[in-house]
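User: Teach me something about this protein's shape.
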Amino acid sequence: MIEGTKGDFYTKELIKRILDEGCLDKWPSSTYGDGVPAHTISINHGMMTYDLTKGEFPIITLRPIAVKSAIGELLWIYQDESNNLDILRDKYGITWWDEWDIGDRTIGAVYGETIKRHNLVKDLIQDIKNNPDGRRHIINMWQVDDFKDKHGLKPCAYQTVWNVRHGKDGIDYLDMSLFQRSSDFLTAGCINQVQYLVFLHLIARHCGYTPGRFTWFYNNIQIYDRHQEQAQIMLEREPVKCNPKIWLNPEKTNFYDFTVDDNGNIILPVFTNVRNNIHIEVEFCKIILSLSELPLTGSKSTIKLDLIAGIFICIGIYLINYATYNKGTVRPEKVKVTINREKGGK
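Assistant: First, the predicted structure itself:
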């Protein structure tokens, strides 16, 4: 059994399975920046599940994760109910959706626009409050009529299903499952899971429940053929023993009041992003002792130093790279290749 988070365990298991069993697509819909077809290696059907009451968590320690940006993207879709790329950039500092601009600085009739058109979040909250034991608490962004309007990328993580569970311990839990039709796993597999885990916490807080179980169902999950080297590097990395937690501002209960704020503090290099209202916290002592064993992002080399030197090196790496890790997204294709998805994308 490997140390680290349950997300680390699942990630290594899934990367190995994709590399060992995955099939190469014959007619890819995307191209790399140099015009070469962007083939993927993929597998179909699977799930990852986390019992939040036992501290199970999807975040990984195998590479830095842009937690703040991930949460910002989530709020842009479900709280702002927006498809506006300028709002995404100006409010959250995110620009990676620009490649899906339909020409008017929006991504068209998908994601936040669909949430707004069909009142999906507000209806969900009311349904959970009015009929907690119902089995029809669903947000589905796969709205075919919306796709008749001009749009960019169709939803990848397209559906969530919510259930209230009355635990034998006397606690009422809110469970949620996420359904995803396609996942570029090295780029966004962990990010999507962390986003929707936060979403579960926010809706549970709003409705007065304790977050219970989060499960991610994927239909097709892929690694780009030019990312196989990065995949192998992640397999060779040793995960960090840690205890991640999600903290929400205790003074807030309304889903629409939570924000990603820029004036918070960073508690732990690389693995913890702290904000005024939402942050993900990782136990300090267990991580800092192991940081000297982590490979540099995008490098084959591994830092092998004694404990004291390792701590100083890691602090230096953090100070130099903080802006990149925290503000942007650490995407494999941004390291080595550029993918042009104008032909249809994932």
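Now, about its shape. Residues 262-276, 282-311, 316-345 have pLDDT under 50 and may be disordered. The chain is about 35% helix and 20% strand. If you'd like, I can walk through any region in more detail.
User: That's plenty for now, thanks!
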